[in-house]
Amino acid sequence: MNRSFFAKNPSILWFIALLGLFTLGVTLLSEATGTGLISTSFVKTLGKTLCLCLVAIAMDVVWGYCGILSLGHFAFFGIGGYAIGMWLMYARTEVIVSASMANQVIPPSATEVSDAIASQIFGVVGASELPTIWSFAHSLPLQLLMVVLIPGLLALVFGWLAFRSRVTGVYLSILTQAMTLALSLYLFQNDSGLRGNNGLSGLQNIPGFESTPQSLVSMAFFWASALALAIGYILFAFVISGKMGSVIRAIRDNETRVRFLGYHVESYKLFVFTLTAIVAGIAGALYYPQAGIINPAEIAPIASIYLAVWVAIGGRGRLYGAVLGTVAVTLASSWFTGGGAPDINLGFYTIKWTDWWLVLLGLSFVAVTLFAPQGIGGLVDKLVRKKA
Amino acid sequence: MSKTLLELSGVSVSFDGFKAINNLSFQIGEPELRAIIGPNGAGKTTFMDIITGKTKPDDGHILWGDKGISLLGLSESAIAREGIGRKFQKPTVFEAQTVRENLAMALKNPRGPFDVLFYKKTSDGAARIEAIAEQTGLTDSLTRPAGELSHGQKQWLEIGMLLAQEPRLLLVDEPAAGMTPAEREKTTQMLVEAAKTRAVVVVEHDMEFVRRLNCKVTVLNEGSVLAEGSIDHVTSDPQVIEVYLGR
């Protein structure tokens, strides 16, 4: 990445500048560091939206640029969330347990402490032992490694098997969806080692920062999310520019031809699939501490379909399109379903948006597909071209 | 006589009991220009599919290069990297990308994902692209999307992409289909020029075009070689006249 990379892609600088201004604006208006015009819960919503934007640009690279309609990227997002959630929950429980045992006459042994942590965490599913997969939960660095390693390895193995067998198109989508569903169903089980349908909770409490107000914690995560989105955006812009982008788009348009040019198509798909899965995992690890809770329902196939809808509405094949689509749909969604939108009284029937939001989303998806197949991003492109 | 570059011996392949290629043997040297003709269903396209690894033969050997390595175990992309380029019947270029991007992708360079990710443009590569554009008459179109090109120009771009790969063997499927007489003339020149330094196999229906290539001709019928020799030799062969020309 040198100066000419940015010179050739001025839209990246525009995006980073706007994201910076937005971050600064929110900071100045927040409760912790500014005038308090924006509530802490809304800062969290904005921070979460930035994480969703990050996973959406990953989806855009794998689908919009490489032509792989993955319905599994939200699973990687969830895995990232679980990986960080394990440490958050373990470390916080450790603090609580140690505090309650501190008054005992005989100081508790390490085993006693870890047993107490286990029964505290797993009592809800009737277990009192720490499952093997929690072996690293005591260590933040190791668990952070898991955030990238588990989605990365899963994508690598799954992708290798699928691409090697030349599974493409809708069949690949179905396969990725099956993977997502299997993972979600497995996590719903109480003996999955991740607390079944209870999921992991209390993730908004960051161990070591118990006395820091949530307004400040949410601000820190908001900044971290903005930074991650900026880095992810530059990374993906680099991947899809130049010759790599050329080959990736060529694979999307005619992979047989690319093969006869001497490119090992499967390696390229695997590279894109795995890289985007890792970024999705990182996005999830930033999202769930802001959401406070993660459970298997988050990983359900519908979440990955939403992801595809955001990218489609925003406009496939342009990174900022994915961001626009995500912001538009998620903010509209929280406005309509959060009681923000006024009900419409038709006299004989009242349209309650909490019920009708999905219908509206479905209709807008159809409308975009029919009237603006390039999405919101395509409309922006048209405007820019007209002015130029 | 030039040394042998590619040798097929006793190759057979059948689809659902239909023998598309039947005990076919074929040799080509380097450099050499060769035309392959034959009626519909003679196995011309399957022949190319087998060489390029798209179809695996049931039987037979395919030996390649100076060391005589077998192509049978290699994937399509590995065979392409060995130096076999293929042009399809229908022009297949990447229409959403510019002519320059199409050529740059084909340019002979390391093909691994990380080589490509950190690929730096070189003045050498740019010069190669210019030279190929010149050769194929696309100099003025380098920055245009390939989708905007005319049918003939797309065919040339594809030939240009093949040349950029610097293959030792070029397989060309019906290059003159749908071209105007002037375009045919130019295509003939390109192929004859390319065959000066490498092996070129042209599959063609059009007898007039083959005659103009002025090279050795192999006639395929029902999956095996019916006759081989100069155009005058094969066109006077009674068997060839019966199955192909007579109709």
TrEMBL record, chain A:
Q: Which domain of life is it from?
A: Bacteria
Report the protein name in the record.
Answer: Amino acid/amide ABC transporter membrane protein 2, HAAT family (TC 3.A.1.4.-)
Q: Where are the transmembrane segments?
A: 12-30, 42-63, 70-90, 140-163, 170-188, 220-240, 267-287, 293-312, 319-336, 356-380
Membrane topology value:
Multi-pass membrane protein
Annotated keywords = Cell membrane, Membrane, Transmembrane, Transmembrane helix
**What is the protein's species of origin?**
Antarctobacter heliothermus
Compartments it resides in: Cell membrane
* GO terms for MF: branched-chain amino acid transmembrane transporter activity
Q: What is its main location?
A: membrane
What Pfam families does the entry give? BPD_transp_2 (PF02653)
**Record GO cellular component, one term:** plasma membrane
Q: Which InterPro entries match?
A: ABC_transp_permease, ABC_transptr_urea_perm_UrtC, LivM-like
Automatic annotation (TrEMBL), chain B:
Highest taxon in the source lineage: Bacteria
SMART domains to which the protein is assigned, alphabetical? AAA
Give a yes or no for keyword ATP-binding in this entry.
yes
What's a Gene Ontology MF term here? ATP binding
Q: Which Pfam families match?
A: ABC_tran, BCA_ABC_TP_C
Does the record's keyword annotation contain Heme? no
Provide the alphabetized UniProt keywords: ATP-binding, Nucleotide-binding, Transport
Known InterPro entries for this protein?
AAA+_ATPase, ABC_AA/LPS_Transport, ABC_transporter-like_ATP-bd, ABC_transptr_urea_ATP-bd_UrtD, BCA_ABC_TP_C, P-loop_NTPase
Q: Where is the ABC transporter domain?
A: 6-247
Output a single Gene Ontology CC term carried by this record. Answer: plasma membrane
Gene3D superfamilies noted in UniProt:
P-loop containing nucleotide triphosphate hydrolases (3.40.50.300)
Q: Which PANTHER family match?
A: CONSERVED COMPONENT OF ABC TRANSPORTER FOR NATURAL AMINO ACIDS-RELATED, HIGH-AFFINITY BRANCHED-CHAIN AMINO ACID TRANSPORT ATP-BINDING PROTEIN
What name has this protein been given in UniProt? Urea transport system ATP-binding protein
Q: Which organism is it from?
A: Antarctobacter heliothermus
